[in-house]
Design brief:
The chain is an alpha/beta fold. The protein is 36% helix and 17% strand. The chain has an eight-stranded mixed sheet, sandwiched between helices. Belongs to the DegT/DnrJ/EryC1 family.
């Protein structure tokens, strides 16, 4: 999810976006930059890279993690690391990077519907989509809400399928007392600037064991096993030292950032509860959630349509997003892909509007968002 925070260069009006990066103080960043420069090691697994990997493992409650320069390369590499071939069952309700990673690996996506309560892949639809060519399932923890990991794993075990989770939204999420990132065979994180935790650009691949991590580390560094040995046709997916240093600063304040997000989410809940036809996605049960997004559903009982409400926000320089609209299956490169009926995904795509939610959202900006909703509801 991109960000365009700050004044519009044409109107000089302040814009409010869905989310914005948690930025370190320059005074904190300067000594780290000096240490990087003095070391002479700007990338290729330097000091900060190693330190961030370890601190993330400790914070997230996982044993093995490999850092990447962005989440898309981590997802591409995850599919390569497990040697996935043929067809992969996935969701149409996601950012296009999820399915683009399949095309980059010459895999055939098969799209099935989502659960309307969670916005996640519906396990009941997966089995009907399986063919002899199916080798894996690629679900998404949409908005950081846990997918139905037990049922997805049950289906995968019956048919001998791998499960790779796109956990781009799920940083720090714990489900039933355990890290959500331990589900499946691999989990992929995004550290893009607009995520709960960011390194400006970045990502990570959570691995179940040291052997898998070693293969991943080979693949993200051109396939080099040592200076003179190349063991796979790898790619350049390495995180550099500057990104890692930013990540260390971000991690030190991540709990405070999530607490700010929680407070704002509850404030939106109180606002929306008084407006007929609007529904905020409820917090998932049994989950320590990260409040990655603020998904609002605009129903037929609201006086204006979702798109009309979207336009009203845009007219006030509030850059809300229809995440995710259109569906991935509506883009030209996916229209011929095999898909089961997608009534839930389409219905959600036509109702969704993500509201601004990030640490530092001011009371004044919150009131600007509230004023648009109140006016559209006829309360202005």
């Amino acid at each position: 999810m991109e960000v365009d925070e700050g004044p519009d260069p044409l109107t000089n009006k302040k814009q409010i976006t869905v989310t914005r990066p948690l930025l370190p103080e320059l005074a904190e960043l300067t000594p780290l930059l000096e240490r990087i420069w003095e070391s002479g090691r700007l990338t290729n697994g330097g000091q900060f890279h190693a330190e961030l990997e370890q601190q993330l493992c400790d914070y997230l409650g996982v044993s093995h993690l490999s850092l990447f320069t962005n989440g898309t390369l981590a997802l591409v590499t995850a599919l390569q690391a497990l040697r996935i071939r043929g067809e992969v069952i996935t969701t149409p309700y996601s950012f296009v990077a999820t399915s683009h990673a399949l095309l980059w690996n010459k895999l055939r996506p098969v799209f099935v519907d989502i659960e309307p309560e969670t916005f996640n892949l519906d396990p009941a639809q997966i089995e009907a989509a399986i063919t002899p060519e199916t080798t894996a399932i690629l679900p998404v923890h949409c908005y950081g809400v846990p997918a139905n990991i037990d049922e997805i794993q049950r289906v995968a075990d019956i048919y001998g399928l791998k499960v790779i989770y796109d956990a781009a939204h799920a940083f720090g999420v714990r489900h039933r007392g355990q890290s959500l990132l331990e589900a499946g065979d691999l989990s992929v994180l995004s550290f893009h600037a607009t995520k709960v935790f960011n390194t400006f650009e970045g990502g990570a691949l959570v691995c179940p064991d040291a052997k898998t991590k070693q293969r991943v580390d080979y693949l993200k560094n051109f396939g080099f096993a040592d200076e003179v040995t190349v063991v796979a046709p790898g790619i350049n997916g390495k995180m550099n030292e500057f990104q890692a240093a930013v990540g260390l600063l971000q991690l030190a304040r991540i709990d405070e950032a999530i607490a700010d997000r929680r407070r704002l989410y509850h404030r939106y809940q109180r606002l929306v509860s008084g407006l007929d036809g609007l529904e905020l996605m409820p917090e998932p049960d049994g989950t320590d959630w990260n409040y990655a997004y603020c998904p609002l559903l605009v129903g037929p009982g609201f006086p204006v349509t979702r798109d009309a409400l979207y336009d009203r926000f845009r007219q006030q320089d509030i850059l809300v997003r229809r995440y995710f609209y259109p569906l991935i299956t509506d883009f030209p490169m996916y229209r011929q892909a095999r898909q089961l009926p997608l009534p839930n995904a389409r219905a959600m795509s036509e109702r969704i509007l993500c509201l601004p939610l990030y640490p530092g959202l001011s009371d004044g900006d919150f009131e600007r968002v509230s004023a648009v909703l109140q006016a559209a509801a006829g309360r202005g």
